[in-house]
Amino acid sequence: MMKVYIRSAACISPQKTFNSTSFLDKLVTYEDNKLTCIEPDYSEVIDPRVIRRMSRVIKMSVVSAVACLKQARVANPDAIVTGTAYGCLEDTGTFLASMVEQDEDPITPTAFVQSTHNTIGAQIALLIKCKGYNNTFVSGGASFENALSDSMMLLAEKNNANILVGGMDEITDMSHAVLTRLGLYKRQPVSNINLFEAKSKGTINGEGSAFFLLANSATEGDLACIDAVSTFYKPVDITETTEQVTSFLAAEGVDKNDIDLLITGNNGDEKNDAVYSALQHSVFDSIPTVNYKNLCGEYPTSTAFALWIGAKMIKTNSIPAILNEGTAIATPIKKVLIYNHYQNSYHSLILLSAC
Amino acid sequence: MFDLKEQIIDQLKIKNLTPEDIGDEEPLFGSGLGLDSLDVLELIVLLKQKYKLRVTNAEDGPKVFRSIKSMAEYITEKQVQTA
Question: Which residues on chain B place their C-beta less than 8 Å from a C-beta of chain A?
Answer without folding.
Answer: 11-16, 34, 38, 41-42, 44-45, 48-49
